[in-house]
Structures are given as C-alpha cells and as structure tokens.
Design brief:
5-stranded mixed beta sheet; two-stranded antiparallel ribbon; alpha/beta; 5 helices; single chain; 28% strand; globular
Length: 160
C-alpha cells in the first residue's frame, strides 16, 4: 500500500559517498524535520539542473523554516551519488543517499521503470517528515515530471 500523510517512514539502509558508508534512514530523520526527495537518476538533466539544483539553492531558506536536514535519494550506486554531490555543490546543503538495489524505494512503493536509465528507478517525489512521520507527500503525477516535488513547492508549504 502506498505511503500517505500520517504514515511513518519505513527504515532502510542506504549509502553515502561509498558502499562502505552505510546510513540508516531512521538515524537521519529521527527527532527533526526533514525534507526527503527522490529523483530518477543522478546526472540526468531534470534531476541535476532543476530538481536537485532547486534544493541546493533553497537549502538555507528551508533550514530557516525549521528543516534540520535535506535528503535526496536515488537508485544509483554510492560512488555516483558522491560524485554528483560534488559536481552540483550539494555537499553541506543536501545529503545525497544511494539506494543501489531500490530496496528503500520499493518499500515506499515509489518505483518506476525507465529502461534507458537502467530499469527500476525512483519516481520523482518530495516529502516533509517530522520525526519520521510524513506531514506532506508530493508525488509527480507521471512519476518523473517537475512540478509538485520541487523545492519552491516545498518552500511554499512551509510558509503556510
């Protein structure tokens, strides 16, 4: 059953920068407000130039609205995500976590099949979490578009 507002985010093991650096998602989200968003693929045009770039640009503003952490998850290997963080100047602003086998993405039922990107990928989404509880969930209607999951949309929700 897909996630909805009021649900708690399931636990998962992800990776940051290298396969040796395991990250427990509950450790990342516990006790704070977190914006977590998923993208179909690192280094892809929409993900790099619009989706991630918007969160990098708005990181300080979102944190000024009480967000303790910004987290991007993609079905890519940890080395790719680490290189993408450096390339997009996301380091220190947005944590880029790798879900190499899509285990986390499958557990939240937000997978999509994109053969030209390697098969199973993440839909494009964003969510606002408060101590692991989903307070807002924005899933792109077609799974890959660039509208409701963007940083500006999340920023507008936080202003209300």
């Amino acid at each position: 059953m897909p996630l909805k507002v009021g649900d708690r985010l399931p636990n998962a093991e992800l990776y940051e920068n290298t396969p040796g650096n395991k990250v427990n998602i509950h450790d990342v989200i516990s006790g704070k407000k977190v914006v977590l968003f998923g993208v179909p693929g690192a280094f892809t045009p929409g993900c790099s130039k619009t989706h991630l770039a918007g969160y990098v640009k708005e990181a300080d503003n979102l944190k000024d609205h009480g967000i303790g952490e910004l987290v991007c998850i993609s079905v890519n290997d940890a080395f790719v995500m680490g290189a993408w963080a450096k390339d997009t100047q996301a380091e220190g602003k947005v944590r880029l976590l790798s879900d190499p086998l899509a285990n986390f993405t499958k557990s939240i039922e937000l997978t999509t099949e994109i053969p030209v990107l390697g098969g199973t990928r993440s839909m494009r989404y964003s969510m606002l979490l408060d101590d692991g509880e989903i307070k807002a969930l924005n899933v792109e209607p077609d799974g890959t578009g660039l509208s409701c999951s963007l940083a500006q949309h999340m920023k507008d929700k936080l202003k209300k």
